Amino acid sequence: MRIVVDCNVVIAAGLTNGTCRAVLQWVLQNHTLILSEEIAQEYACVIKREKFRPYWPYLQELTLSLCQIGFLVNSTVSPYSLSDKEDEKYLAAAEIGQASMLITGNKKHFPEDFYGSIKIMTPTNVFQEFLMSEN
After folding, report:
1. What does each C-alpha distance from 96 to 10, 12, 55, 73, 113 come to in angstroms?
2. I need a labelling partner for 55 at 20 to 30 A (CA). Which of 18, 47, 48, 120 fits?
3. What is the mean pLDDT of the chain?
4. What value does the mean pLDDT take over residues 2-23?
5. Residue 43: pLDDT above 70?
6. 1 burial class (0-12, 13-18, 19+ CB within 10 angstroms)?
């Protein structure tokens, strides 16, 4: 499966050992992470925020690793309109990368359950639906 992971999930995975980290590990071990240059830039920009200063080395290593592991697609304009235009880059990458899932902690920014064939899921939904069934 091809999957796009929102920046908020990556940051949460880097900060705490919990659901987001388990979901990100599941994606990396079992699926293809889809990225675009715009998504990689957002990862790099967000981790530089002052509130993440104590975690900079780890978050920087994490995001660089994701960029090396992930499948990079050339971004296009999203065929979908969102209230937060900054989030459209995730749908654009998912569309061009033929992802079947976008994982986000900000479901309110992606109010539909599906955008075309792209299923929008929270980390908790992914954990319950996929990871719990593997155990």
Report:
1. 21, 26, 32, 7, 19
2. 120
3. 96
4. 98
5. yes
6. exposed
Distance CA 105, CA 29 (A): 20
Give the angle subtended at the CA of 69 by the CAs of 96 and 114, to the nearest 5°: 35
Chain CA centroid to CA 27, Å: 10
Beta pairing partners, 32? 2
Q: What is the pTM of this model?
A: 0.96
- Per the listing, tokens 């987001």 go with 20
The C-alpha atoms of residue 67 and residue 64 are separated, in whole angstroms, by: 5
Chosen CATH of 2-134 out of 3.40.50.1010, 3.30.470.10, 3.40.50.720, 2.40.440.10:
3.40.50.1010
Centre a 10 Å sphere on the Cβ of residue 15 and count the other Cβ atoms it contains: 16
| Residue 93 contacts residue 36 (beta carbons within 8 Å) | yes
**pLDDT at site 50:** 97
Domain layout of the chain by residue ranges = 2-134
Where on the phi/psi map is residue 97: left (φ > 0), alpha (ψ -120 to 50), or beta?
alpha
CB 66 within 8 A of CB 83: no
